[in-house]
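Supplementary Methods, section 5.1.

A reviewer requested that the exact input to the structure prediction be made available. We therefore reproduce it here, unchanged from the version used in the analyses.
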Amino acid sequence: MRASSATQATATVEAVSAGRRLTIGSIVIAVLALFWLLVTATPFLFMIFTSLKDAPEYMSSESWAMPKHWAFENYGLLLGNPTFYRYLFNSVLVVVVSTTVIVLASSMSAYAFARIKFRLAKPLFAFVVAALIVPVHVTLVPIYLMTKEMGLYDTAAALMGPYIAFALPVSIFILTEFMRQIPKELEEAAQLDGCGPFKIFWTIFFPLSGPGIATVAIFNGIMMWNEFIFAYVLTSTPQHRTLPLAIWDFQSQYASNIPMMLCVIAMTSLPLVIAYAFGQERIIKGMMAGSVKG
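The structure derived from this sequence is encoded token-by-token as follows.
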């Protein structure tokens, strides 16, 4: 009886100790998470506070000082500028069309590499993977000259072509590895029902590749939304320039309106923040797709 009581007491002490360790561990994790939140949020807060200063106050005050006069009129001036909405429309158009083409082209190519056996499958897939080592900006001058020769300079198509081409190798690589994990039994059952390759792809592989497709769409969409260099080189007028280039409207030869430039940057990042706030679960699942096999 005494031995049983001692055993129970020991188990109780161990349980309490484990609970304390768990509590301490949770506190440490929470502190580290708050610290990391502060580190990552500091540049964003600096951008917001500086965008709410007027130009004279920004030049005369310290960089990290809070605004003495909250210049909300900066955002009113920006939102009242019709050119800003043209930039926004161009960005949405380029990202939506390019992402749609990337998802369709890369998923079809990935299905071919993952499931269809043909002689050049391995060499072609190796060629696609080899394209990942080519630095994107090395192609800037050739693409500029090609765009001028084709008469596409200063058009939305001038941006869509390079964006799609640069995104296809990594997208095909991600989706090929993802589709290889889909059970073969599903494909065999569809073949017994008389389905051809295209129907099998469209009714089985495309829906089941949703997390991988989300990864491709999110990754490339963010990259294209924030892209600056190619948009700057391949376009020249507000009618076809994208949102990141709107900052140049507030820069002159001798001075720059830094608060207004940061105001544009804040508005440019706002759609991404909203999208992540409402779809963070889907985004995380997409980014984690394929990381665990089986």
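Residues 82-288 form a domain with the MetI-like fold fold (CATH 1.10.3720.10). These observations are discussed further in the main text.
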